[in-house]
Structure formats: C-alpha cells, structure tokens
Amino acid sequence: MAGFVLYLDSVIQSKFKENRWQLPARVYAQSLELANGKPMTPTRLRQELELLGYRKVVKATRQGDYENYKGSFFIHIREFQFWDGQQDSLPVSFNIKSGRIAELKNRDTGETLQMARLDPLLIGQFHPNRLEDRILVHLDDVPEHFKQALLTVEDRDFYEHSGVSPKAIMRALWHNVTSDGRSQGGSTITQQLVKNYFLTNERTLWRKFKEAIMSVILEVRYEKDDILQAYYNEVYFGQDGGRAIHGVGLASQYFFDKRVRDLTPAQSALLVGMLKSPSGYNPRRKKEAALKRRNQVLRLMHDQKYLTEQEYQQQRETTLSVVNKPELKLSRVPAFMDLVRRRLQDSYSEDELKSEGLRIFTTLDPVMQRYTEEKVASTLARIESSKGIEEESLQTAVIITSSQTGNILALVGDRYTDKAGFNRAIDAKRQIGSVIKPFVVLAALEKSSQYDLATIISDEPLSLKQRDGTLWQPRNYDRQHHGQVPLFVALMNSYNIAMARLGQQVGIDTVADFIEQAGVEGEVRALDALPLGVLELTPVELAGLYQSLASGGLKIKPAAITAVTDNQGGLLERYPIESERIASELNTYLVKAGMQLVVEKGTARYLHNQNPFTKFAGKTGTTNDLKDSWFAGFSGEHLAVVWVGRDDNKEANITGSSAALPVFTDIFNGLPTETLRLGYEDNIEWKLIDADSGLLANDYCEVSVEIPFIRGTAPTEEAPCAPEEEESFFGL
C-alpha cells in the first residue's frame, strides 16, 4: 500500500507540477488593418467581419458588435494579444468613400486614429491527441462571484476537507435515498480534478479508490488555491465540433465573447450550472433548460448570502446573453496549415506544436482564401464541361502572394479545399513548361549588353546532338517556323525554337546557374531543353521563382508566418522578409514589359480581354504531352501561380491558355488588385519597334509595338517598311 501511494504521488508531481496541460498551438490569419486612405470596399469589410463572427446590431454596446449604415461603420473591436503587444477593446468609427477608408476615429473620445486592427481569425490549431482546447487563466483573473457560485454548487466545504469530504458523501447518499430518482454526487472539487486530469470516467470501485487516495495526496502536496486554479483550467464545458471546450477561460470566450474577469454574476451562474451536464444545459441548444438551471444557481447564491435580494432579482431578469458564434473547425485551410507546420518543424518539435500553446501569426488573407476556393471549384467544373473532359478528373493548386513582400495570402492544394490529403501546392512536382522562358530572357540580358527585347533570334529548325548520340529537335506549338523574330515576339508568342536557340547562345550552364540563383532550391540540370521548361517544380517553388520578377530582381522566399509567441504572448520568434538581389532593376524592368505583351497581345491575351483595365505581366506554360497547364502572373499588388492537371499524370489535353489561365482570370476578375505600373525610369527609354525586323517602326509598318530599352541601346536604324505600290488604272 505504501508503495502504491508513493507511485501515485510521483505521478501527480511529475504531471501537475511541470506541465499541467497540453495546450494546442493556435494559428491565426493576418489581421485586417484599418487606416485612413487604405483601399477598402464595404463588401470586403463585411466579409471579414462575418468570418470573425462580429455581430451586426442596431446599437453596438460590447466588443464584437458593429453597426453599418451604407458607407459608415462603427466597430467595437475586440481586445487581443498580438505578437507585438496587447490591444485593448477599441470602439472605432469611419467612412468608406471612393473605395478608401476616411475619418477613422475613436468613437468614444472623437480622437483621430492613425491605425486600428481587427483581431485575427483563428484558422486552425495543432491539437494534442485528445483534441482538448483551453485558455489558461490565473486565480486572480476569475471574479469572486464565479468562485462563490462554484463552491456553492459543487463543494461548499472545499476549504475545510482534505480532498475527500465524508460530509458531502453522506449528504449525497441521503439525497439519493430520499429523492425521486434524481441522483446527486458527493465528489469534491479536488476529486473532480483528479478524475478529469489523471484518470478516466469509468465507473468502478477501483477508479474511485485511486481517485480518493490521489485527492488526499494532491491536498497534501499543494495549496487549496493551486487546486482551485487547476480546476478552473481543467473543467469541461462541452464540444465545439471536434474539439473539447475546457476551462472557464475558453468557455467565457466561446459563450459570451469576453474575458473571464468581465463575466456578470448571471453568466458565472450559467457556466457553473452547466458543469452538471454540459450537453443538457447547453445555452445554444437548450435555452429553457439552461435558463432554469442558471436561476437555480442564482437562488443558491442568494440563499448563501452571496447575492443580495436586489442583486438576485436583477441578475435573474437578465437574458442568457450568449453570442452567436460559428463552430470552429479544426482546420479550415488544410493546405495552408500543412505549409505552416512544415515551416515550423525546423524550430519546434511536434510535441511543442501540440502541447505548448504556441500562438502562430500568419500571412493568410481569410477573405481572399475563401474567394479563391470558390472560384477554383466553379472554374474547373466549367472547363471540364466546355471541353468534354471527364467530370472531377482535373486537379489544381493555386498560390497567391503579395508581389512585393512574398507573403502568402491564399493557398489551395486541392479542388475540394476542405480536404486534408495530398497537398499539390507544396508536394506536386511537375514540369513547368514555358513559364520558365522569362528567366531565359533575363539570363541573356544579365549576361551581355548585346541582348535587348528587339534582338533578332532565329526561329528556324534546330537540331542538337545529345549525349546518347540522338538528335533533339524542338518544335513550336503551332508546328510552324517563323524565321528571324525579335526577342519580344518570341517571348510574346512562346516560340520554342527561338528560346532553345537563345539558351544555346547564352549557354545552358549559364541559364541553369541563373535559375538556381533566382530561387530554385536544389540543382537545376543544364539540359538543352531547360529553356522550354524541362524542370520539375511545385507551385510554391515556382511562386518563389517568380517573386524575383515581381519584386524587381530581388529573391524573396514566399512567407507564411509572421511571428510566434508563447501562450502568454511572449515573443519567441519573428520572421522578417529577407531579400537578395539576383538581377538588375533595369533588366527586370525589360522582362516585365515583355511579359505585359504576353498578356496584352500574346498567349495570355484572354486575361487582358476579360480584365482590360488592369495591367498584368504573366506567362503561360504547357508541357509537350498536354499533361500540365500553368500560368504565373502578377499585378502591381499580387502574384499568383496556377497549376491544373491530373493526379494520375495522364494526358489531360489542356494548355496553359485553356486551363490555368482561365482559373487565374476568374480569380482576378473579382479580386481587387492594383494595376501593374512599370513607371518612369531615368535610364529607360521607349521606342516604337517593327515586330518583323526589330528596327524602329515607321508609319508603313504593319505591326509595331512600343518597347523599352536601357537608354542608349535602342536601335537607330529604321525598318524597311514601305508603302505598297498602287496599280495603275489599266493594271500596268
């Protein structure tokens, strides 16, 4: 018996003293910042408020409420512990005029505000095995009336007994014998804590015996207030979907959208009353039963002189005041959560992620994510229907980032976006096809000043001997040869032969080295077919490569995490943006101009036709066997990479223009984004160039395009365009 007691003592001390609870890591989306002059639409703001569970009311009196009258908003922003400090609840008012925020003020004081931010959306959690969730509270955080209600209902002799109360057991036994079948328990708060924290719910004498001994040991080892605080954090309040709501801290937030310290006596009575049967007295599902139970607890508090007659009547007349909040899914964005987990693995163990209560602040834009998911599903269904492709056979991956910072704003790894399975965005390595061609052009511009966008490249037949003695002969998609063409025309129309020849002129080793330097992790093999996209990348890797173009020649790895804190808000790690220059701004400027022509006049002109008022730069990509469809493009604000194909790697009979490009286009048809402005550069001059000869165009050239050049490098010779000779009256 002594040995058994010592064993139980060691179990209690090892678990209760060091790591009392396994706390899930909480993952938050980026918070929406409000600032004067910031672009905003009422629809975009209302979507954010809806996702956050804010309540539209006539009069906003508590945090989590908001009012909206046409373009005027009043939002009672919730308090929140950000990675950079505590934000108290803040009532703000502002207008939305001409698509921008104006007159941002503190509504209570009238003070003009520079900036305010909404609390971020909780997008998922890394749970311990039991799927428990809680917000830890200290004894001082819990109001006295909650303690009074708890002791009155659950354990009036808490401060007198030594873990087990014979008095309570006899009282419960007498009640069970004399009552009409309704049973009453005799367990103390200490016993309840031991059962929930150390043992199981099995109803056996052996479990009750261990419970009694461990309760006495716990009382010997620890102070009453330590036990009470542990009870506050362990007690069970029901289920929210798949997660279990534990502790008064989370229960207060879940049911009332407030901190424990701000609970009213009636709200405390409701929570304490629920402990008898969390499902039976759930105030969202069984309001009448919950109200009756709450009033019973208030009556007991009044009988014990914890409430005056006036306080009792006042609290009894209040409503349940439970807020309407949507159930939290364990992960609303499984592909993004997968990426976050992988990015954290280098710094945190799996056990730390699931049990230390880390708070992870990410870059995800929840409104953009939801919109992207909807568009992906509808567009793929339309493509399959219009092209006679087997239903639900196409799959996709989409990544959207900030074009300047690389922050990942949306990530889709499956057309069925709520599925947590194969993550195509970060695991599907597929040949990228012609989306590599802008980097071949940029490598040429970086290597030698003899290249510019008007440089003539041959698109005549090309044969290259391979190491095994065979000949490789690249072909154009249209199976035609186009003679001598300016470089911008070869890029605009995605001529394979011209790009393969350019790769040979620049040097395949040079091209491979440059692509590695631009952001590809791992070896890029120097193959003759590299300029045509014989390189396997995931959509996230390709987005990292394209980030160097969108940012003006800076290599920036797409980022998913902003900061990580401990469960008390202490900053553990920041994730700053890191950049490295891999190409000059001027040469990147030229390539971006060439990619704008791809959208306006070339293989991606569908995007321009559907969205003529926003300038994009982009490039389509198709593999030779029509298995993989790619489009990578960017505006002045956003960069996006889209892949469409089949999981079984069979021929899908799709091109970059017929599948990935429509997905990109449909997304940005409804997604506000800044147009791509190349802007004025002192060292850049624009010239009107003949699309046939690459020389200066005159009035007689059939097709002329305005092209940028580094100052002093533009052609000086005029194209040999001449007026057609008119036939005489007699045809002579």
UniProtKB/TrEMBL annotation:
Residues 34-118 form the Bifunctional transglycosylase second domain. It comes from the Bacteria. Signal peptide: none annotated. InterPro entries: Beta-lactam/transpept-like, Glyco_trans_51, Glycosyltr_51/Transpeptidase, Lysozyme-like_dom_sf, PBP_1b, PBP_transglycosylase, PCN-bd_Tpept, UB2H. Keywords: Antibiotic resistance, Carboxypeptidase, Cell membrane, Cell shape, Cell wall biogenesis/degradation, Glycosyltransferase, Hydrolase, Membrane, Multifunctional enzyme, Peptidoglycan synthesis, Protease, Transferase. Pathway: Cell wall biogenesis; peptidoglycan biosynthesis. It is found in: Cell membrane. Residues 397-668 form the Penicillin-binding protein transpeptidase domain. It catalyses: Preferential cleavage: (Ac)2-L-Lys-D-Ala-|-D-Ala. Also transpeptidation of peptidyl-alanyl moieties that are N-acyl substituents of D-alanine; [GlcNAc-(1->4)-Mur2Ac(oyl-L-Ala-gamma-D-Glu-L-Lys-D-Ala-D-Ala)](n)-di-trans,octa-cis-undecaprenyl diphosphate + beta-D-GlcNAc-(1->4)-Mur2Ac(oyl-L-Ala-gamma-D-Glu-L-Lys-D-Ala-D-Ala)-di-trans,octa-cis-undecaprenyl diphosphate = [GlcNAc-(1->4)-Mur2Ac(oyl-L-Ala-gamma-D-Glu-L-Lys-D-Ala-D-Ala)](n+1)-di-trans,octa-cis-undecaprenyl diphosphate + di-trans,octa-cis-undecaprenyl diphosphate + H(+). Gene3D superfamilies: Biosynthetic peptidoglycan transglycosylase-like, DD-peptidase/beta-lactamase superfamily, Penicillin-binding protein 1b domain. Residues 130-301 form the Glycosyl transferase family domain. NCBIfam families: PBP_1a_fam, PBP_1b. Cell wall formation. Synthesis of cross-linked peptidoglycan from the lipid intermediates. The enzyme has a penicillin-insensitive transglycosylase N-terminal domain (formation of linear glycan strands) and a penicillin-sensitive transpeptidase C-terminal domain (cross-linking of the peptide subunits). In the C-terminal section; belongs to the transpeptidase family. PANTHER family: BINDING PROTEIN TRANSPEPTIDASE, PUTATIVE-RELATED, PENICILLIN-BINDING PROTEIN 1B. This is Penicillin-binding protein 1B. The lineage of its organism: Bacteria, Pseudomonadati, Pseudomonadota, Gammaproteobacteria, Kangiellales.
